[in-house]
Amino acid sequence: MGDAFDDPRRSIVWMDVTTSWRSRGGRMNGTLRIEQNYAPALAQIMPERLRLCRYRRSRQRFVPLTTLPQIAATGASAREKKSAAGSAPQIGKRIERAVRQWRRSAAAHLFEFADSVRGGTNPFPEARPGDVLLLAGETWSQYDFATLRRARQQGGIRIAAICQDLIPAKLPQFFEADGFVERFARYADFLVADVDLVIAISEQTKRDILEYGRSRGTLRADVQTVSLGHDLSMPTPSARPPVLAGLEPRKFVLSVSSIQSRKNFDLIYHVWRRLCEEGLQNLPKLVIAGRAGFGGGDLLWQIAHDPMVRDRVIVRHDISDAALSWLYRECAFTLYPSFYEGWGLPVSESLAYGKFCIASNAPALVEAGQRLAQHIDPLDFAAWRDAVAELVRSPELLAGHERRIKAEYRPVNWRQSAEQLAALLQPLYSEPRA
Q: Which of 25, 21, 104 is nearest to 55 (CA)?
């Protein structure tokens, strides 16, 4: 590999893994899965070209890495365990977070202003003209966009960026008013105006990017699509994890996602409440698995204090991958009522486990469902209530759905996804150097 790097005729693909670097020892999430799965797969597909790097924000430059930072894929992070054991009052945590976010936003503005005034130095001296910088992580939060522009303009590198969604720019009402939406808008502007190749993770995300670029009048990027892998990489426990005590196989329904307003968990909470009121026979428990997020606090309070559903709706935060795997394997079916997504990983995971999913009809979720899931308007309470009741009353109908999934579902693994990505990157490094 060293000989390939020293060859002046060979361009290098530098995969940025800053999100993994910052999260090492922490907990896996969707963005981290992209970095953690693409890096080793691309290393096998294009070993003579791939290198890793990270961004040092304090010095505004990229530095090479020799190994991929490892994430604690199972269990909670040390920070989460400390929080669970005892932490400062919630209001204090909110103030601390607000101050930290304000400082981060102010620093970002300062960095970008300073760059625009002085022109700056090359932020990636190890990269040569014609090399490709692949941004696969949380580009919206970790970088100074003026620095990235300078790397492209002064260093002669080409930039490719994986975009999961443009939801904060499209639906800002679902996000906290702490400067995040404004910073995300700067990220979206950077994507459409300063990136050579934008890689969307769904056709709907591609449409959103193109629409945004046209609305800004600055679309210069080539926008392509890859299908993310969804291998069943989570460990399979031999027995029910203790945190899930009281749950019996096939006697609960699962919904997996962070608990925030955009995910629309209020809908399925009220569906379960109505079905409890109506006394539906053999109603399974509803298990909601995910961390609390923006707009989810009121819902969690209602569930905890509602005597009608207290024993029928169960919420589990920060469970391990092993516990999540058990939930998928043993649930009766899954639900995903989200208003809008860039992709539908919980739908894909459900199908990969052979489980039928009732999901909203958001376009990206319909893509993920591959015509093997049921899709309903996320505002149509009666339709959701009837769909759940029908599956509970008709085990043979549910069994038929599962047989069809087993026969027809064709998952994409990370190797296949990385091959798609490598093919999209190839024209960037094959073009003559400037």
A: 21
Tokens of 78: 């040390």
For the chain, the distance separating the N- and C-terminal CA atoms, rounded to the nearest angstrom, is 24
What is the distance of C-alpha 258 from the center of its chain?
11
CA distance 286 to 366: 23
Q: Are residues 136 and 257 in the same domain?
A: no
The segments of the chain whose pLDDT lies below 70 read: 1-9, 25-27, 72-120, 232-235, 431-434
271 and 184 fall within a common domain: no
- Order the strands of the 313-316 sheet from edge to edge: 313-316, 285-289, 252-256, 334-336, 357-360, 374-376
Q: What is the domain-level CATH number for residue 101? A: 3.40.50.2000
Domain count, the chain: 2
Domain around 283: 242-408
Over residues 256-267, the pLDDT tens digits come to: 999 999 999 999
Angle at 293 between CA 334 and CA 371, to 5 degrees: 30
Instruction: Please report which helix (H) or strand (E) contains residue 366, including its range.
Output: helix 363-369
Answer for the pair 276, 248: CB distance below 8 angstroms, yes or no.
no
CA-based torsion, 114, 115, 119, 123: positive or negative: positive
Q: Tell me: do 197 and 159 sit in the same domain.
A: yes
The residues that bridge with 14 in the sheet, in sequence order, are 51, 133
77/175 same-domain check: yes
- Rounded to whole angstroms, the Cα distance separating 96 from 177 reads 15
With tokens 């516990």, the residue in question is 323
CA separation for the pair 230, 15 (Å, rounded): 20
Name 72's bridge partners. Answer: 27
Q: Is 320 in a helix, a strand, or coil?
A: coil
Length of the chain: 434
Whether residues 254 and 174 share a domain: the answer is no
